[in-house]
Amino acid sequence: MFRGSLKDVQDMVGGKGLAVQFENIVATGVTIDSRTVCVGNLYIPIIGARVDGHSFVQNVVTVDGCVATLWQQDVPGMPTDIPVIVVEDTKKALQELAMAYKETLKMKIVGITGSNGKTSTKDILASILATRYQVHKTLGNFNSEFGMPLTLLMASNNTEIAVLEMGMRGHGQIKLLSDMAKPDVSMITCIGEAHIEELGSRENISIAKFEITSGLSEAGLFVYHGDEPLLDLRIAEVQPNFKMIPFGEAATNDYYPTSIEVVDNGMTFKINQSDLEFRLSVLGKHNVMNAIAAIAVARHFDVSFEDIQRGLANIEMSKMRMEVTQAKNGMMIIDDTYNSSPTSVRATLDLLYTLDSYTQKIVILGDMLELGDHEITYHQTIGAEIDKQQIDAVLTYGSLAKHIAEQSKVPLTKHFDDKPALAAYLESISDDKTVCLVKGSRGMALEEVIGLLK
After folding, report:
1. pLDDT of residue 260
2. What topology does CATH give the domain 3-89?
3. CATH number for the domain formed by residue range(s) 105-312
C-alpha cells in the first residue's frame, strides 16, 4: 500500500501550498470515500454529479484520522487549520499519484478487458500466478478511472505482478487506463454487446476494447480472443509490433481446448499445449476459455503447467459470477447475477444444457441493460433461442425480460413483477433434483431472489 511523506505526495501530484511543518507527516493508504477512511490515510475529495467530496474534508481529518487532504484549487472554502495540498484537479491528481507510485515498484502489469469474462479471468489468472509470484489484483470491480488508480495505490512494495481489470462505458476510457498502467501484457477476453447503447455497434466496441494496447510497449504481449473476426480486423488495420497470442476454440489459435467436460460443480479440460488435464472449480465452457487465456499469460511468465494445475484448483472467484449455492429445499442455484448480456446469457444457458444429473432445469432471467435501440429485439431473440427440450421452466423479471417470456417456447414460462412472488413460485416447483440458473444485469439485483430461497 502507498506510504509516503506529504512532501513526497505534493511532488508526485505537482501540488502546492503544503505548510512546511506538515512536510514530514507520513500518509499510509489513500481513500476517496469518506465512509471508508482509515487512520493515517490521505483523503482525495472527488467532485461527483451529486456529491462533492470536499464537503467531507474537515471531518475526515479532524475526526476520522486522515493525516491530510488534497484540495481542488477552484473549489472555495479551503480549510487553513489542517494539512492541505492544492491541486488543479483532484481526479487527475489521484491518477498521477498512482502512476508515480507504480514507478517506485518493480512489478509487472497485466491489463484485462472484454465485454464479458474480464473479472473471472482476472481471478483465475491471479490464482495461477500466485503459485510462483507475489500477486496483487483488482478488488471487486475497481476497474474505472477511479478504481484502477486506487488498486495501484493498494499494491504492496513486494508485489511482483499486478492483474488489473479495465472497464469502460465509451471511447477513450480504456486508453486512459492503459496509458496510466502501461501494462506489460494486455488481454481482450471477448467482444460482445455490453455497452452497445453508448457505442452503437460491436465494431465500435472492438475499437474501444483495443485501446487496452495503447500503453503496451513494443516489448509487450497482447493476448486476445482469436475467434473474433473484429479483433483480427483491428490487428490488420493497426499492424502492431508487439507479440500476439490468440486463444479460442478454433485450432488456428495458439492456445485452444482439445477436450472439455463438466464434472462435480466444475470443469475439466485439456489444451493443445500440454498433455496434462486441468480442473476448474467454476462452471461453464466460457470459464474454460477464460482459463485458457489465463494459461497463455501464465506461460509467458514461465509458470509451469504443474503450477497452473495447482492455481486452477485454488481460485477465489468474485461473488455473483457462476457462484454455486443451495436453496433450503436442496435446489442447486447458479448465481450469475452480477451482470448480463446476450453473449453471456447464451454461454450460461449452454452450461445449463449440459447438466444432465438434474431432473429439472429452471432459468430465471432479468433485464439485460445498456443494449441501446435494439434492446427489445435482443430480449426477444434470447427468449426464442431457449431450448424447450433442455429447459423445464423459464421465469422472468423486469420490463425488458417480459419480452423473453413472450417469445419463449418453453411451456412453463411465467413473468413476474415481484421478487417475493417469483421466489415463492420457484420454491413451490423445485426440489433437491432441480438446478436453477439466475441471471440478470446488476441493476436488477436478482441476488435478492436467491436470498429469499436460502
Report:
1. 96
2. 3.40.1390
3. 3.40.1190.10
